[in-house]
Amino acid sequence: MVTALIERAVTRNAAAVSALYVDSVVAPLLPDMRANTVLDDVVRRALDETLSQGALGSRLFEMRLWSLDGTVLYAQNAALIGRRFPITDDLGQAFAGRIVGNYDRFDKLDESSDGPAGPILEIYNPLLQPWSGEVVGVIEFYEHANDLEATLHAALLRSWLAVTAVICLFFASLSLLVFKGSRTIDRQAVDLKARVSELTTLLDQNRALHRRVQHAAQQATALNESYLRRLGADLHDGPAQFIALATMRLDSDLVLAADADPVKREEEVRLIRTRLAEALDEIRAICRGLVLPQIESSNLNQVVRHAVDEYEMRTGAKVRCDILGADALASLSQRICAYRFVQEALNNGYRHCRGAAQRVVSEISSHKVSITVEDSGPGFDPGRVPRESIGIAGIRERIESLGGTFLLDTSPRGTKLKMVLELEEPSGK
Questions:
Q1: Average pLDDT of each block of 10 consecutive residues along the chain (429 residues)?
Q2: Which CATH architecture describes the domain 297-429?
Q3: Is residue 380 within 8 Å of residue 352, measured between CB atoms?
Q4: pTM to 2 decimals?
Q5: 311 and 347 Cβ atoms separated by less than 8 Å
Q6: 2-144 in CATH: which number?
Q7: Domain spans of the chain, in order of start
Q8: Which end of the chain, N or C, is more open, meaning fewer C-beta atoms within 10 Å of its C-beta?
Q9: Distance (Å, whole) CA 66 – CA 307
């Protein structure tokens, strides 16, 4: 395709130059072609001499002069003069006013004509009337094209070199692009593999957390029932007994009989009041354990301090409390969890070692809270804790239900309980 385009372009340019040259030499020798359609001997001899001498004679192989009806008016082969031939496509284009050039093609009009020995340029040049520009005839001539052949070969060589260079550059660019793309794909494949591995790990962790939350929810239900049973037992064994005793004394004769001794009646009423006051004190003590003081309006550090103060006020024991790090936002459920953890851990320490060297350490850092409660008591064996006990189990389930971590370390040198929670911003309150 490229070769054909180059050949047509070079042939067209060479034909135009040659046609202009021949036209400038031959046209002045011709008579008025509109008035004379036959050339006389003088014109023919002038043409013969002109076409056989000088630069034109060395370059020209053959020339023919055509009239508009297809008659050969002049030819170097005298046998063709006066003969009429069918108008070819190239001749028809020349009659229409266009210069036609063909490389290495020779049209034989009869078998007596011999073809050229080398490459040749065929040109059809229309003859124009000077004052009107009308086509009055066509000069068909054949020019030796050795120089044109060399020019074509050089142009083709340059074109192929250019095409080869472009193709090499294209393939080099494509290879570089493919290389970079391959490296990118390999890198993305490694990243994708790492992300898939990370996602698999996260999914495993998510499933483990889901199982823990499920288990914590089940345990929370069971612990809630245990709390309710313990609360019922505390109410039954404490306030209910005092109230029942007071009710029985209210039904006695010392209170109801009209003739009862006033002194004894007053003593009996005083005892009833005492029992009712003791029942009220028991109920208040139970309520203090259920109601969280100022929990909704306190921050995390204040919650820990409230739990320690409440414990010291109730038991009279002294606790070393260290609050480390600035306070951070925490949800209500996390603040409740922290309060219950400190409360239950201190109560367990008081029951088992009477609060021996108890210490509470609260530390907040990087959106994480860590609270430790420790004592110097004799410790205990976690394996011997009854299944129905809800102290340690309740703490663990409450913390793990919020996605936190609970740690227990006990030995004859003391006991340490620790909770760790990832802090989350409060919503609502």
A1: 59 63 66 67 72 65 81 79 85 83 71 67 79 77 72 78 89 90 91 92 88 73 66 64 68 71 79 79 69 72 88 85 83 87 86 79 88 88 64 81 89 90 69
A2: 2-Layer Sandwich (3.30)
A3: yes
A4: 0.42
A5: yes
A6: 3.30.450.20
A7: 2-144, 297-429
A8: N
A9: 125
